[in-house]
Specification:
This protein has one domain: Jelly Rolls (Sandwich), CATH 2.60.120.10. 13% of the residues lie in helices and 32% in strands. It is built from two helices and ten strands; from the N terminus they run αββββββββββα. The protein has helices at residues 2-13, 149-159, and strands spanning 45-52, 59-65, 70-75, 80-86, 88-93, 99-101, 107-109, 115-120, 125-131, 138-139. It has a five-stranded antiparallel sheet, with no helix packed on it. A five-stranded antiparallel sheet has the order 6-5-8-3-10. A hairpin with a 5-residue loop joins strand 5 and strand 6 (99-101).
């Protein structure tokens, strides 16, 4: 629960996207997006807000992950739509085979569905995530029971692999 509060507070402190009218047809962030590490999320993943306020409601964010970076088993309240921009993003959903997404692909992660993300391959990963509700993150152990972020992140350090190694076991 503390990790949810930390993430919410941090998201509120992230630089807000430039003000645009609610009906703006085109918004460009490009190289001006400000990326930051979130508390309770592995340091190998950074995030920039492109639209909205992830701490308060629907939003669009870009996430960058270094090669081998693992965001360990977790779930979110919002549903996520993922559109990879670069690299090879491996999404593992509990009880399913891992799926590799690359530029031009689309992934959908339903609300409260346990999953894990990994930047597979030797190149950094980047993806845009469309969130339909305020962002939160709930880490889980192999049985699916919620665990503290510190415990999950300590275990994630063991999962971070060099490119070309096997993915971590599914819960």
């Amino acid at each position: 629960m503390r990790s949810i509060l930390l993430v919410t507070l941090f998201l509120a402190a992230l630089p807000a996207p430039a003000q645009e009218s609610p009906d703006a047809a085109v918004v460009s962030k490009g190289m001006s997006a400000k990326f930051a590490v979130l508390p309770g999320v592995p340091d190998c993943a950074t995030l920039a807000v492109l639209k909205g306020d992830p701490g308060k409601g629907p939003s669009v964010v870009e996430m960058k992950l270094t090669p081998g970076c693992v965001v360990p088993w977790h779930w979110h309240t919002p549903s996520e739509s993922a559109v990879p921009l670069a690299g090879l993003l491996e999404i593992s959903m509990k009880g399913e085979k891992p799926v590799l997404l690359t530029s031009g692909d689309y992934g959908y992660l339903p609300s409260e569905h346990i999953h894990q993300a990994k930047c597979a391959g030797s190149k950094p990963c980047a993806a845009i995530f469309f969130l339909d509700a305020p962002f939160d993150i709930h880490y889980v152990d192999k049985s699916g029971a919620e665990i503290p972020a510190a415990q999950a992140l300590a275990e994630a350090e063991k999962l971070i692999t060099k490119p070309g190694t096997k993915p971590a076991a599914r819960p």
